[in-house]
Design brief:
The chain has helices at 14-21, 68-72, 87-95, and strands at 26-27, 29-35, 38-44, 48-51, 56-62, 76-81, 106-107, 113-114, 120-132, 135-147, 152-156, 159-163. It is mainly β. The chain has a single domain (27-153), classed as Electron Transport, Fmn-binding Protein, Chain A (Pnp Oxidase, Chain A).
């Protein structure tokens, strides 16, 4: 068992914290938005539901990241819950916000790019942004959604995995 105690003078080692957080399995999503230069994406595992009435979800973005301005100020965006077969796309988007590979994007109802064949797609309107340490927490109201059947893409201890339906 590894234990990391908080030392008030230096805090918790970020590497130890990241590794410890990796013990919590999450789904894998890609958030897309439309910019003046075209569609952009960011791979995110910080997606969570907040409220059913109204329908609210959240995700977070690093304020120091190169994609921050693309998403922080997007009025609308889409959150895509990935299928097990979409792991390559998740890694492509990690490396390049505009590399959607062979996936032909379609336009959503609010002008955001939609990745086809995902398990679920939530088109959202940004409602609030909260500061959370070195990240901003983006709260959005779900305006439209699509849900399909299949196995999901998960992330656990730094590895992609299939989540059986």
């Amino acid at each position: 068992m590894m234990q990391c105690m908080l030392d008030e003078s230096i805090g918790i080692d970020p590497k130890v914290l990241r590794n410890s957080l990796g013990h919590f399995a999450t789904g894998v999503t890609i958030v897309t938005a439309q910019t003046e230069q075209g569609p952009v994406g960011i791979t995110v595992n910080s997606f969570a539901s907040v409220s059913l009435d109204p329908a609210l979800v959240l995700w977070s973005i690093d304020r120091n990241g190169s994609r921050y301005d693309m998403f922080r100020y997007a009025e609308h965006y889409a959150i895509h819950v990935l299928r097990a077969q979409q792991g390559d796309l998740a890694f492509k988007i990690v490396k390049n916000a505009r590399d959607f590979g062979d996936w032909d994007l379609v336009g959503g109802e609010y002008g955001v790019p939609i990745i086809p064949q995902c398990l679920a797609v939530f088109e959202c309107q940004q409602t609030e942004v909260y500061r959370g340490g070195d990240h901003d927490i983006i709260l959005g109201e779900v305006k439209t959604l699509r849900t399909f059947e299949g196995d999901g893409l998960g992330f656990f201890k730094g590895q992609m995995m299939t989540v059986k339906s």
